[in-house]
Amino acid sequence: MRKLTYLIATSIDGFIGDESGAAEFFMKYVDEEYLAYGLEELPEMMPTPMRQQFGIDDRPNRRFDAVLMGRGTYEVGLPQGVTSPYGHLKQYVVSRGIEKLPAPEVELVSGDMVAKVRELKRQEGLGVWLCGGADLAGQLVDEIDELVIKTYPCFLGSGMPLARAGFAIRDFALESVKSFSGGNVITTYSRQR
Known about the structure:
Layout: E1 4-11, E2 15-17, H1 32-41, H2 48-53, E3 64-70, H3 71-75, E4 90-94, E5 106-109, H4 113-122, E6 127-132, H5 134-139, E7 146-152, E8 160-161, E9 172-179, E10 185-191
Parallel strand pairs: 1-6, 1-7, 3-4, 3-6, 4-5
Antiparallel strand pairs: 2-8, 7-10, 9-10
């Protein structure tokens, strides 16, 4: 059975972006060591245009073969003409407000997203990457099997939280911690059910 992994970048105080969700400011914390690790260990996280730029467009996916995005996450690339941001993965966009997507290879999920996630998890293949954002993660929190949290060495004070989920204790077990000389940390947790 495939896992749903919420793999997300965050500040030390748990914000994945400013109030609007913009998070490009995290890029200042991406140094050579951190980038090299990402290109080798998580190549599927790179949008397709960046994979081509870094010469890894033929690198096989290691952990995921599908990506699930909220509308806000998907729409980030549209002004630059990026309609299929993760062409190397099966792409799903969850939205009740969009009627049609500009790329036929990107599937719109407008109905029961929990049912869709459960269907995806039953399929054969690598994992399913929950790419963002906070509302979608909050709605799917009980389906998340793994958290991979990329923490950047900054404190924001406010912004978009890691997830907008109602209060409940959800137990996870620490699996690994990878730290980098620039202060970035990648922490992996598995769901305890």
